[in-house]
Amino acid sequence: MLVDSHCHLDFPDFQPDLDQVIGRATDAGVGLMLTIGTHLSRFPAVLAVAERYPQVYCTVGVHPHEAASETGVTVETLLELAKHPKVVGFGETGLDYFYAHSPRAQQQSIFRLHIQAARQAGLPLVIHTRDADTDMAAILEEEYAKGHFTGLVHCFSSGRELADKALELGLFLSFSGMLSFKKADSLRLMARDLPLDRLLVETDAPYLAPVPHRGKRNEPSFVSATASTLAGAKGLGIAQIEAATTGNFLRLFNKVPG
Fold this sequence. Notes:
The chain has 258 residues and is α/β, with parallel strands linked by helices. The protein has one domain (2-252): Metal-dependent hydrolases (TIM Barrel, Alpha-Beta Barrel), CATH 3.20.20. It has helices at residues 18-27, 43-52, 75-81, 104-121, 133-146, 160-168, 185-193, 223-234, 238-252, and strands spanning 2-7, 30-35, 56-60, 87-96, 125-130, 151-153, 172-175, 199-201. Strands 1-2-3-4-5-6-7-8 form an eight-stranded parallel β-sheet. Strand 1 (2-7), helix 1 and strand 2 (30-35) form a beta-alpha-beta unit.
């Protein structure tokens, strides 16, 4: 069984044919999917997808792009929403300095709120980071010094220093279809050397469709292509990658029944 550890099934892209999308994932051996919260204001739609399908779980949180627009986020609100049995983590949250849709200070503040919630609830964070390696590493280290929390850096495409810092703090790393892109040689070399017991795979659907699906709407069934690329990078069989990444997901997101 494979797990798509990060997708956005509540997005309008999937409204016309969500049943078929889920069916294709099942046919492709994708036994679990994690659909990710990006706005508190849109969380009911995220939860509705998770409640509709037994193999879908969700997270609750605010994407760094929305840090300025999603006002009134509190630790208490996040904790209350996370009591639902289908909510298994917080996020996606983090820092995105590439697009800078929200001021950096607001991104950092709301990121720390998510970390506090994760620490209190004992649930993992789904971390987004882009062009923010230095600040991301510093915040993770500062916050970890205040108390243990778990999580993963999703769609990992940052440098080795951030990868090492995340691993040092006990976090996991998740690879998306970017791993299969023609110009991603350095990312595949990094994946080759990273410990398999800390890696997951994802689609980030509807974005970042892997080879050979480039240019199409991404969907959870395509996570098998990313898993195949990871297997090739590490010189392992696909069955080993399936077993390891699924086991890692269930170990991290331990609210999901195994």
